[in-house]
Amino acid sequence: MGEGGTVGVEGYDVVFGLARAGAASVDPDTGRFLRVNPEMVRIAGYPWEELLGLTFADITHLEDRNGDFERFRRMVRG
After folding, report:
1. Is the pLDDT of residue 4 over 80?
2. What are 35's strand-pairing partners?
3. Residues 30 and 55: beta-carbon distance below 8 Å
């Protein structure tokens, strides 16, 4: 544990990689996947390298895109 009981970068990397849920880091400006864990690769159904070239909108059902994009923007704004 880091200072103040926080988990350092190494701990985050371990949790991210071993998470049983799909996890991704996404560019806040473009929505492009920057990093995905193995479960996200499985859920999305794309090879790792291809998924990293896509945006979350690329893998979102057309009918869900507007709502998902708005939730993403609110999250980015804080």
Report:
1. no
2. 25
3. yes
